[in-house]
Design a protein that fits this description.
The chain has 495 residues and is α+β, with helices and mostly antiparallel strands. It contains 17 helices and 14 strands. A hairpin with a 4-residue loop joins strand 9 and strand 10. The N terminus is likely disordered.
Length: 495
């Protein structure tokens, strides 16, 4: 069977369950067409990820879906639960017993550790799945979600043996939302949907028990919702998982290709740089830096993380409904000029309007990209643009440009999305601090004016309205503010 090409596209976040389903199923049909496949094979394990993969396959291929439950998979596997899921979805389900085959294999190979035994069982299971998929000319769909991949909850890099991972780009909470959309959460799953057990930190360390809500909030960039100590524990888990982490691409075709292994060193370097960037921006969230300083920091660290020639940041002006260029690390004077785009205009406007990332492999050939002359002059080629979000609200856009043709990886997309969302929190926090300061100053101004007015009423026997008009007239005549005039009245009459 011909294999589909690997797809390099980043995660689409904050879409409704229905929109996610539509997008994934359309992609599944496209991959089947490219592969000349007739349908899909899914192993039903009884867990929510495999159930959602099966539901998506059913949505995409109708009756051309086969579900398998495997005895001998592992001691905890619940084949009855898997059968109930297939019945609810209306999918043909068959059972395959690998117990005898597994024990026969163990009888002719040296005895290993429990971990090695589990790995052998896993490989045997996947060999069987691949064989059955090939006999039906079906694509083999695997389970898994972004949350579990990020923190290492996947064994032995088995994801590389599947053709497609339709939910690998989704946070666990997004997978649960899709499950709910298909009616799959009504008491079907015995596993905890709330807790992640990442195992012990070390030989003597505490177990890393976290909530999936915390994990998903952290991974989506909502750092204000996650306590600092929990953020640290998540980063530790990510670091410990890095040895087996091979971040799958969105809706990733994996098959027999191991191209991503060749990029593992670059990916780890990018990941390490991203941790440093997020640390810097995290400090900015609680700092008293001015907004312009925050914006400058964001474009600087983003350019460093992505190795971009140019990085720019646009913020949305809600009052006027336009986007303004607010920061860039470029030294080109033409690029530094103040520029404005309407929502929906150009790449930046499109990203804001649709609340989703955009990739231009060559900006000179991209019909949406507007500033081709500037790009030609500066030697800009590829572009990645992601929205800056605060609780589903887009406040701006971060753009990264390269000076050579570049295919942005899933890791780069994830890193930039995370950096952009954390930067959005820092910007929002800074603006709130400014607003608070302005409000505080306004209240203080009003108090001073009221004190001066009351003093004039007593000393000059004026009404409240006349006293206020006196202050106004003096302000206009002296070209000083009402506050300055009021402070002078208080200084003169109270002394």
């Amino acid at each position: 069977m011909a294999r589909a090409n690997m797809i390099n596209a980043g995660p689409v976040m904050h879409l409704s369950a229905q929109a996610q389903i539509l997008e994934i199923t359309e992609w599944l049909r496209l991959q089947a067409e490219l592969s000349r496949a007739c349908g899909a094979l899914v192993e039903l394990t009884g867990h929510v990820d495999s159930a959602v993969a099966a539901a998506l396959a059913k949505e995409a291929f109708g009756e051309h879906v086969l579900a398998l439950t495997l005895r001998g998979r592992d001691p905890s596997h619940d084949s009855n639960l898997a059968s109930r899921i297939s019945s609810q979805l209306g999918i043909r389900c068959e059972q395959l017993d690998l117990t005898a085959c597994f024990h026969s294999l163990l009888s002719v190979i040296p005895k290993g550790t429990n971990e090695l035994t589990r790995a052998t069982r896993c490989r045997l299971r996947l060999v069987a799945l691949r064989h059955i998929a090939a006999t039906h000319n079906y694509l083999l769909l695997g389970p898994g979600n972004r949350t579990d991949f990020e923190v290492g909850r996947f064994p032995y890099s088995e994801e590389y043996l599947f053709d497609l991972l339709p939910t690998a780009h989704l946070l666990r909470t997004e997978v649960l939302q899709i499950a709910d959309h298909f009616g799959l959460q009504a008491g079907l799953f015995e596993e905890s949907a709330a807790l992640f057990d990442g195992g012990p930190l070390g030989k003597e360390g505490p177990r890393q028990v976290l909530t999936y809500n915390d994990l998903d909030a952290y991974l989506s960039g909502d750092f204000m919702a996650v306590p600092k100590e929990v953020q640290h524990r998540i980063r530790v888990l990510q670091q410990h998982a890095s040895q087996k982490r091979r971040r799958p691409l969105r809706f990733t075709h994996l098959g027999t290709s191991h191209e991503s292994h060749l990029e593992s060193i670059d990916e780890q370097e990018t990941y390490d740089r991203s941790i440093e960037a997020l640390t810097l921006i995290s400090k900015a969230i609680t700092s008293d830096q001015y907004l312009e300083d925050i914006l400058g920091l964001v474009v600087m660290v983003t350019a460093e993380v992505t190795k971009s020639s140019v990085c720019s940041l646009w913020l949305l002006d809600d009052k006027e409904g336009v986007l303004r260029l607010r920061a860039t690390q470029s030294i080109d004077q033409e690029y530094l000029k103040d520029r404005v785009l309407r929502v929906g205009e150009g790449v930046v406007g499109k990203v804001v309007a649709e609340n989703r990332p955009y990739i231009a492999h060559n900006v000179l050939d991209d019909p949406i990209f507007k500033e081709k002359e500037l790009a030609r002059r500066m030697g800009l080629v590829s572009m990645l643009s992601v929205p800056m979000r605060v609780k589903d609200r887009v406040i701006g856009v971060v753009n990264c440009y390269t000076s050579h043709p570049h295919v942005f990886s899933d890791l780069q997309m994830n890193v930039l999305t995370t950096v952009a969302n954390q930067a959005a929190v820092a910007i929002e926090n800074t603006e709130l601090m400014v607003q608070t300061k302005v409000i505080s100053e306004e209240l203080e101004r009003r108090k001073i004016i009221e004190r001066a007015k009351d003093l004039l009423m007593k000393r000059l026997d004026l009404s409240g309205e006349d006293a206020y008009r006196w202050l106004q007239k003096r302000s206009m005549n002296t070209r000083k503010s009402m506050r300055e005039v009021s402070e002078a009245v208080l200084l003169t009459m109270e002394s």
